Automatic annotation (TrEMBL):
GO terms for cellular component: membrane. The lineage of its organism: Eukaryota, Metazoa, Spiralia, Lophotrochozoa, Mollusca. The chain crosses the membrane at residues 9-31, 37-58, 65-89, 95-119, 126-150, 156-181, 188-211, 217-250. One of its GO terms (molecular function) is mating-type factor pheromone receptor activity. Keywords: Membrane, Transmembrane, Transmembrane helix. This is Uncharacterized protein. It comes from Dreissena polymorpha. Coiled coil: none annotated. InterPro entries: GPCR_STE2.
Length: 252
């Protein structure tokens, strides 16, 4: 646009100069003027080109600056976006790691709790089983002891009863035997005494009648004989009784 304006002005200037030259009717002047005008036109054209180049350069510089600014903005935006993405990724990774750690800790705690509960349940079951076994063993032992005690008591009672019965029977038998022996001994003693008395009486009668000995002597003799016989009988009875008592004691 600027170049076109300059060119129009230049051509207007050239036309005016031509009019001046025509009007002046001087060829040399016209030639010089034309040359001068050409030089001026060339100079003006160069200036215009320079100006245009400068404008182009300025526009290019502006474009470059805009591009650079845009590139810088884009780079900044990209860097910010990358930083944001990195921060988001880091935050997400940290959150995921924290969540995983928390989940793992929760799982570990749950497993530990489950293990503790299982161990406690097993210990309780073992304790209950041991208590039940101990109670059963104690009950069985008590029952066995009671049964044994009862059996022993019954056996002892039976043995005692049998022994008592045997002792009573033996004592009764011994007493009967002693009584019988005593009765027999007494009867024997009575018989002996009767026999002795009869013999003594016969002897006395014989002596008195036949021998004609005095009665006093006869009586004394009879008394002596009777005493001797009684002493002998008493000794025999005592010996028999002692023997019977010793036998009874030994048997019992």
């Amino acid at each position: 646009n600027h170049f076109g304006i300059y060119r129009m002005l230049l051509w207007k200037f050239v036309i005016n100069v031509c009019f001046i030259i025509i009007i002046g009717s001087k060829v040399v002047v016209v030639v010089v003027v034309v040359e001068v005008v050409v030089v001026v036109v060339v100079v003006v054209e160069v200036v215009v080109v320079v100006v245009v180049v400068v404008e182009v350069v300025v526009e290019v510089v502006e474009v470059v600056v805009v591009v650079v600014v845009v590139v810088v903005v884009v780079v900044v935006v990209v860097v910010v976006a990358v930083v944001v993405v990195v921060v988001v990724v880091v935050v997400v990774v940290v959150v995921v790691v924290v969540v995983v750690v928390v989940v793992v800790e929760v799982v570990v705690v749950v497993e530990v709790v489950i293990v503790v509960v299982v161990v406690v349940v097993v210990e309780v079951v073992v304790i209950v089983v041991v208590v039940v076994v101990v109670v059963v063993v104690v009950v069985v032992v008590v029952v066995v002891v009671v049964v044994v005690v009862v059996v022993v008591v019954v056996v002892v009672v039976v043995v005692v009863v049998v022994v008592v019965v045997v002792v009573v029977v033996v004592v009764v038998v011994v007493v009967v035997v002693v009584v019988v022996v005593v009765v027999v001994v007494v009867e024997v003693v009575v018989v002996v005494v009767i026999v002795v008395v009869v013999v003594v009486v016969v002897v006395v009668v014989v002596v008195v009648v036949v021998v004609e000995v005095e009665v006093v002597v006869v009586v004394v003799a009879v008394v002596v004989v009777v005493v001797v016989v009684v002493v002998v009988v008493v000794v025999v009875v005592v010996v028999v009784v002692v023997v019977v008592v010793v036998v009874v004691v030994v048997v019992v």
